[in-house]
Structure formats: structure tokens, C-alpha cells
Amino acid sequence: MSLDASIWAWKAQVKNSSQRLVLLTLADRAGETHRCYAKYQVREQTANHDKQVRRQQGVANQLTDKQITAFSQKLAHHPEFAGFFAYAGESYEQLAARIAMKLSDPVQAKQWERYLKQVGFKGSLQGAA
Question: If pLDDT is split at 50, 70 and 90, which confidence band does 12 have?
Fold first, then answer.
């Protein structure tokens, strides 16, 4: 690996993370003469990275099961939210279960995004188009 090539790869102007990955992968294989004879493996790694990024972007716009569980508990104890959405005589556990069912729907989660942010959600949700 050439340190100079790695530094150059980090400083180079690129349009997206995939291009940066290609440069870093080539720099990792470069010798002290700054030459690299990349093979199919570089293309394969880059393609796998692109697929992984696309998968992560899709997930980032929805709540995971763990997030649904955690935020449904927090929302059930949130005074403003619980006061508005809880039924008379409903326990926190019953309200949390009902919230969890609704949060699994991306459209409903998007409608409640401001409350989710109040209880610690970071990021943004994308409702159904």
C-alpha cells in the first residue's frame, strides 16, 4: 500500500462515495511506484458496496423493529402524546402495544415524526408515496 496514493485518494474531488471507494481500493493495492494493477476483485467490491449503501438508504427511511419497540414505550409515557392518543383506562403497556402497531406503518410513523423527535428519534422518516 502506498501512503501517498491513499492521501491522494482522500483529497481527490469525487462526486459520490462509490468513486471514493474505488480510489481508496486502488490506492490500497498501489505499490511505492504508485502503480496498481487492479483485477476483477476491485469491481466486485465496489458493486457490493453500492448494493449495501442502497439497502441502508432504504432502511434509513423506516423504523426498525427495535426502534418501534423503544419509541412506542417512550411515546406511551410522553405526556402530550399519551394525553391525546390514549383511551380512558388504558394502561401504558396497552397504549405502547397500540403505538407499536401503528409505528410499523410508514405513513403513520411519518405523521407522528414530531413526537418521535421529542423522545429522541434522530433522522427523518419517509411516508409512502
Answer: confident
